[in-house]
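Quick board copy: two proteins, each given as sequence then tokens.
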Amino acid sequence: MFILKIFVSLNLLSTVRSHLKDDDLIIEPLDLFLNSSDSLGILYCNSQVPIAAEGKILTASFGKPVEAPPAFGFRTETHNSTTLKILIKPNNFIGANYIYCHWNNNITYGQKADLVIGEKPGIIELKEPCRAYDYLYVECQLHAPVIARGFQNGFRKLFDFTELTTNERFYHHVPELIKIVNNEDLIFRFKPLDRGHIPKDVLMNVNLTLAGFGSSIFTFFIRPKFTTRVDFRIENILSTRATIHIKYNKTGAVSNRLCSGYIQSQKDSNRWEYFSNVTATSNDKIELSYLRPSTEYQICLRCYHKLTDDSFDEKHCQKIITESLFSNKFFVAIVIIAGVLVILIVLYVKRRIDQKKQSASQTTINQHDPLLQPPVVDLPVLREQSIGSADTQSIHTDRYEHFGTDFNETIGVADRVCPDTRDLTCSRMNMST
């Protein structure tokens, strides 16, 4: 068992003081280097006064939380009245940190020692073919688990790339480390010197280093797959329409980026059926209409600059569920208004029918009630007289048909009808009465 012991001496300028400050502490700058496979490392923190002098307690802590597991083990023991024992167990941890020795929990007045745990950098591999995005830059994902964990946990990010193809350079130096994936992979971004022009075949050499534990060298070809990032979201989802918002569709590359795709609707729990196409467009927004309420849709898009781009065959899909028809306030308002109109029309028609029925019923009653019938009067028949005939002498007496001598008995004087034409006979009768 390998045990490395380093004594960190903390010398106080005075023996016992009521207030201990960092000016009272002296520490020699010692570093503790451990291999990730080591069993244990030890630090000793010494003081010229008792560890618990005047209520002050000497303790220890480490500086940064562990980003990439597994974490190293850490605990303290009292070695004697003036010495604190700090035990570090590597546990296959790879990274750099600090160990602080300080009074109580006030790390501000503490002194620190460097803690470095690592191993040889190990292999480097190209995880997948590099990708050229929007003719603007190239990203390459390198699989290097030891180095990735070390970079994640505090090692200085030391790397160097060299183009080996020709004397001509195609990319800016140095590429940017933009992301560490799953504590195992490193993604580097290369920007071409000629904006908008991505070379198709460049031999690249990379050197990755873990300080104090060595370097690894790897050579690979940058033969990018030409692709386009598809970043979209679906907004304003209603019962019959929705909006696709495409992020960064205006890339500023040498050619306009296009996005197209298709829409599927769910037929049952396991099957989708074709609904419609999404026509190729360079716009940031695509309006979808004629959707069905309360239906699940799958919207798939692919974006590309040229039909020969590798990303033409790569689609990205999102699912949505349209709202219920009755959740649309505008539709509900229309239904309410239409319902009110229908009720008013029905009431109007019913009223007209009732009026017609009432009118017909009144007519029938009038036809069967003799008291409501108008009196029937037989009008006298006017006889034609020839001008110049013998009867002209009796024109005033024989103009109307005679009903006989019983005329006065049959019709009362008050019931006689007198025409508008003045008749002397009628006048005489009226005068006689």
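And the next:
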Amino acid sequence: MASLPPAPDGRLRGDHACRLGRCGCGGAQARGERVPDPIGAGGRHPAAVALVTASATAGDPLRVLQVGWGFHPWRVGGLILYAEDLMAALVERGHAVTYFFAGRHYPLRSRPRLRCWHRDGVDMRELVNPPIVAGLERGTRRPDLDVAEPWIEEQFAGALREVAPDVVHVQELHGLPSSLLDLAAKARVPVVMTLHDYGPLCATLRLFDADGRVCTRMRIGADCVTRNAGAPLDDRLLRRETVEFELRGIRGWLDRRGRSLDERLVEWALRRAGVSDEQIEAMEASLPRPEPGLEDAFQRRRDVNVERLGRVDRLIAQSPRIAEIYRSLGVSGERMSVMPAFAKHIERLRPRRLDIAPTLPTFITLGGCASRTKGSRVVAEALEALRAAGAEGRFRLRVLGHVDPAVEELLAGFERVELNGLYARDQLDAILEDGDVGLMPSVWEEALGYTGLEMLAKGIPLIANPLGGIGGYLREGETGWINESCTGRGLADLMLRVVDHPELVPDMHRRTLAAWPQISIPWTSHVDAVEGVYREVV
């Protein structure tokens, strides 16, 4: 039976949506046939051998195997938008791009499987119901799987055989084992890896310890057990995300036909899938739950990954600070370079006009209250300090993005604080039109901080903590004000200065616009640089 192509948003119609001739198997998987191994006695397809194949010569198309987690809009955030923009740009330049990634988790079907589909010129190899539960900032209960996982390794080995890539570009290993790096090396395929966060070094991604500080320790086992105590017990949250994603597609289909989905049916489906609000809340109520005896496993995860990163052909750090941190924790800097990954959509943002001092200064934060590490407690403490100083109501604060449940009720209780919720990329330009000053309250060492760059592109100066990649574009007196203490009190003091002296805003706005051309990197130049790295390692 022939497979149907996926819908434009990536939803699949049919259990196996391999388009004939587009995923590297020639349609064999769709027909249920065994895929032959194209690797010869040399251990690797000869067309991918460095400096021999025609595709390795300057200007000729390359076969690029991208590796990551999820796809938009099932997953949101700057990292996936950047990765997909890069893949689209490579396709536009004539390269053959395949994306291998850990993806959706469906209820009622527990066995993992591979789905091949096609979108916007990219061959998608999605691991559905993969064995590794991607817990993001909450961490993991199986650090051993982050190092090695047989089923995923088997699927990746198949991708290497069938795609015969000239280069593998790892955007992230979330939901995937780091053993994939060794598999590529064994197949003699050069590997490029962009360091978007600290996932290889830290199971909770942020390099933030259980005491609420940036983690610089080398012996991490005991702290990791505590820090990962809030990790999901199973893939229930990912199943809920997947069900909601599919329901959005169904609702959209019905809306276009003037119909609606019976919400009683939705509630029944969520309960049947084990992901109703009540079932999710029951799991959350049982957390945090430390897993004793995992100290050695977490330490091994770090040690093995440090060693494996040292063998990668080229590591790309988002900022000098990120490179410094990785090196300080044992990763070899011999083949590490710095290349900020400016997202394509930033170029489409148009600077707003701000010629006069605002009568009611408007602060805005994009994701700055999403979690503790993103700065939710810093913002809450700042608002409490401003209330104590009698400044409540003299300014407006717009909070965009997810809000940390730990502070949501508190934030909503302040006068003129608006919790505006999630937003789409195409809404960003309009959203930022009434922002006077942007807040970047992160307390972790941000790899780059796309939201800060988005606000600067609009001419919105920042009040920010000088951590991680933020320090590369936060310049006192040029692009904003530095919160040296990285505390809520320090943020409140700087916000109060703006509230008391709103004439500072248009002046810093003009300075920000003047500084932006020296900070920004044209998207085409970035893609040129990435392509240049590919050709260097091939």
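Board note added afterward: The radius of gyration is 24 Å.
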